[in-house]
Amino acid sequence: MDETVRQRLEAAGINVEEALERFMGNEMLFQRFLKKFLEDESYRKLEESVQAGDPDGALKASHTLKGVCGNLSMNVLHGLLTEQVAAFRAGDWERAVSMMGDIAQAFSQVCSAVQSL
Amino acid sequence: MERTEGRRQADTILIVDDSEINRGLLENIFSRGYRIREACNGQEAMEQLADGRESICAVLLDVVMPVMDGMEVLREMNAQGWTEEIPVFLITAEAGSDVLREAYTLGVMDVISKPVVPYVVQRRIGSVIELFSARERLSSKVAEQQDEIFQQAQQIIELNMGMIEALSTAIEFRSGESGAHVRRIHDITRHMLLHTKLGEGLSEETVTHISMAAVMHDVGKIAIPDNILNKPGKLTPEEYEIMKTHTLKGAELLEKIPQMRDHAAFRYAYDIARHHHERWDGRGYPDGLRGAEASVWSQIVAVADVYDALVSKRVYKDAFSVETALDMIVGGQCGVFSPELLESFLAVEKELRGLYRPGAGQIS
Question: What is the CATH topology of the domain spanning A3-115?
């Protein structure tokens, strides 16, 4: 993988080496799925559920997003979502919602890094 | 057997996850060793399992999914008994201990956490698939062998029966009988045991043994000289005494064959050979048994033997009509039978006539 691309992804909180290992060295597939991530609807559903005050929907969306981020080694975003899922599970709506700012920022960093591929 | 045959071709992993990225990742890990099918929610997974289950060697199941989630799939698979046939793996980002406990109770093989590590999922899933297929091969081998053993046992039983019939027919042949006589005694005995109250409480297997034993009722005739056995006219009292010994000689002969003595049919064969000329009034031979002292099967063979002799042509007589034969039996001209036995015999006698049509086979 091009070193500048790698650095850009790493800067957005993606552990490229770990991700490639998970894709068994298949760079093409990794990049294809990074682009698929832009189409993933979980983040939009998370925002909508939070706005609508729907704890079940928010938990599901956060959980799903966390799973995908984990598999793509988006470690910063994955870490934030892990905390948020735990907060939703514990019924701590306030805390979970208060994390939305950090999550939004990490999400947009990942997206712009991926868009530049 | 059918299930086993199908399972052996199982080479497809069913990946169930609502995220295309997660499915693609797992597909990339397994596509070199297996065929892959995908479902993006539980309901689709159930549909695939319902119509192509025999090709599926493992199910990789996400927990949180729209429409129908992973735990619902698991409950349904468990209820159908499918978790016994197909190993199911939960692939989940995190699951509470309640979920884990329920999953294992429902028969999940393993729980693998996201994000997945390729080497780990390959090893854990691959070895369970191998285990299931080895178990399948083994149980299909065992089923095959059981089938073979069963067939061999059947052949042995048929061979036994064939040899007993051959021996009995050879002996009957001396007195000008064909194999049809022993065949008919067999069939009448079997029919009466299966279709009248005389056979009440006897298992199918016992009925088979008794019917087989009935075939040998006259083997003692081998010890009777030709001039007596085939005498067209009436026997002198001395000749008749010799003729009567065929009952004891038959029992004695059967007792001397070790393989016969160990056979489940032996006690019936011995009893029938010895007692098929006893009479209800105690004036039969050789033991003068009275009433129910003679076994039901000896009594059945006695009446069957008389009936068959009357309606068939013999060296010493022509065939009587069925009506005459029945009159003679009921009138006590050919022995004395128990009222119960006669009642049962008359109740099925019309069915027995079928045995005397040309080319008739077994009726029951």
Answer: Four Helix Bundle (Hemerythrin (Met), subunit A) (1.20.120)
